[in-house]
Amino acid sequence: MAANRPVTLRDVARLAGVSVATASKALNGQPQVRAETRARVVLAAEQLAFSPNTFAQSLITQRSGTVGLLTSDLEGRFSIPILMGAEDAFGSGQTSVFLCDARGDTIREKHHLRALLTRRVDGLIVVGARPDTRASLGRDLPVPVVYAYAPSDDPADLSLVTDNVGGGRLAVDHLIRCGRRRIAHITGDPGYSAAQDRARGALDRLDSAGLELAGGEVWFGMWSEAWGRGATRMLLDRCPDVDAVFAGSDEIARGVLDVLHEERIAVPSRVAVIGFDNWNILAANARPPLTTVDLNLEQLGRTAAQRLSAAMDGHPASGTETLPVRLITRDSTAPLS
Amino acid sequence: MAANRPVTLRDVARLAGVSVATASKALNGQPQVRAETRARVVLAAEQLAFSPNTFAQSLITQRSGTVGLLTSDLEGRFSIPILMGAEDAFGSGQTSVFLCDARGDTIREKHHLRALLTRRVDGLIVVGARPDTRASLGRDLPVPVVYAYAPSDDPADLSLVTDNVGGGRLAVDHLIRCGRRRIAHITGDPGYSAAQDRARGALDRLDSAGLELAGGEVWFGMWSEAWGRGATRMLLDRCPDVDAVFAGSDEIARGVLDVLHEERIAVPSRVAVIGFDNWNILAANARPPLTTVDLNLEQLGRTAAQRLSAAMDGHPASGTETLPVRLITRDSTAPLS
DNA sequence: GCAGTTGCCGAAAACGTTTTCGAGAACGTA
DNA sequence: TACGTTCTCGAAAACGTTTTCGGCAACTGC
């Protein structure tokens, strides 16, 4: 809490024996200043531990060097990695990030949006908690916006989403390559596009292999371990010869594993299990450790930051960009021997 | 992306037919302006959707209206709720928060600190990933700092920590009130003060009840389900008449429950289990749902924000403040019948 | 009617930069 | 010598506010 007056460019200029104008130009790498004077100014700045007042800079340049991260939710596990990726991409450069949590409330979102615009952020990343489409913030914003995870309903906006369809395809593909033929799909709330898309991808891959879903249909339910357990019991009852389960989330997969374990059904030798999300605390600690699909969320955040930077530099984009997911192989799947 | 020139106070003043000086005073609630003129100015501001340029304001008032949230880690689960609490406390007011993630790297932390100071934040909250003491940022910072979760090693700083000793005491107290007498404690890495403190609290409460720890000593190990499972097997082997287990984390508790379930030992009727952390995904989905201790992290974040606000208003504090934890009763504990 | 007080308003300085533009010096060329 | 160029630098304007201070008019009390 030192209270000494902060050092300004004037002080630097005085110490270096030049005017503030040249001091400014020297520090900003403008060419019209002699090398020797520049060195003198830089030295003076270092001696005084000068750091330019960003308000004065922003005031004149009309750029704040900040972006806003507007998240609908910090509770869930999906927004955090995205924020991490975005923060990392910006924070290691010269831009600082404002964090705003709307807590699922539209009013609060509006409040934060207004606050961010008042602070003259140069850009905005809107990250959703669910991959379902969300309302656009509008077209008349003074700054570029990138929507991450939850796409905007306006195709003129730029949205970045994970490839849930591809993820479903990938999961089933892996099971088929493991020699499985009687594959069931237990997943969460059918009101989530995540559930629908993953199921669609799964069915698509099954179809192209000439296979049908074990159990006859997708088992929609809830995103919980309890549902995973309940559905698995029903599944074993109705379709005892199932040899693989694709769970729509790692939580559900934990429930599946739990019941299989209880029933003394060997995993993966008799039934293979694959999850979704790669939620480490659940997947890595499972018995056996869970093969699953990673959404590459941190990469999604990083890409969002790149797209936003591009837009801020005058290269806007629009439409929905789908980013790839990847398979994480652990011990709950293996080829049939 | 409308490109029309942003409206300034001059525009408002012109429309209202006053000078910028009175316009400023009118909008800022200064008394020396007639009610009728004030109304005219406010109306004009609304019509033009005026929002003051915060850079100009900050430049003159020497206050940015922003704070920095400097976290050592976003991976873990502990920093997030703290950030949420702090963001909520500030964000609903007029201050915006910068988010900086050091990713466990001192270099990066220094970089972020410099960036935040350059942005002239009015204050700083440093949140750690572990409750162990961390190095102070120093005494010569131009803004007040509050350390949350991980206390500073400098007693002149203000640190806010959770009451791990009290939590251990609380957990064992609950088990004793449930009529348990042969209580074991399985916990994580002894290198964590969290493990040591909780164990200390547990032993303290046992002592005051004249009890000894079942198994003879604290079972230190790792913060994982696997360790929970392994330790429980050893425990049952060495001490088959145990009637309660206090797990040092919910992860460990999950492992404990798993083995008890496997061994067909009824929970809570024969053995009661209590966890720590109230990590919802683990605790609520456990079989049976897990009684545990909640760290009140969001409240910790909120309190940190309050303390920081006080310090920014000229009421600094120092020392370490310990915040209470609370018991979450679910179904893994119950009175002996 | 007059001095003193109060209420309301505007001109101008200030905050700390960046940028434009003009001036002087040094240089080369004819 | 005269002239055009190229370097280097500084004075000053600008960014959009807040705040101080002085001025004017309308009151008050006598």
Can you describe what's shown?
Two copies of one chain form a homodimer. The first copy, chain A, is of the alpha/beta class and 337 residues long. Chain A has three domains: 9-52, lambda repressor-like DNA-binding domains (434 Repressor (Amino-terminal Domain)), CATH 1.10.260; 66-162 and 297-324, Rossmann fold; 164-295, Rossmann fold (3-Layer(aba) Sandwich), CATH 3.40.50.2300. Chain A is built from twelve helices and eleven strands. Chain A has helices at residues 9-16, 20-27, 35-48, 54-61, 79-91, 106-118, 164-177, 193-208, 225-238, 250-262, 280-283, 297-312, and strands spanning 66-71, 96-101, 123-127, 145-148, 158-162, 183-186, 244-247, 272-274, 292-294, 319-323, 326-328. In chain A, the strands form three sheets. A six-stranded parallel sheet of chain A has the order 2-1-3-4-5-10, with helices on both faces. In chain A, β1 (66-71), α5 (79-91) and β2 form a beta-alpha-beta unit. In chain A, α1 crosses α3 (35-48) and α5 crosses α12 (297-312). The radius of gyration of chain A is 27 Å and the shape is elongated. Chain A starts with 8 loop residues before the first helix and ends in a 9-residue tail after the last strand. At the A-B interface, α4, α5, β2, α6 and α10 of A face α4, α5, β2, α6 and α10 of B. Chain A binds a DNA duplex (30 and 30 nucleotides) through α2 and α4.
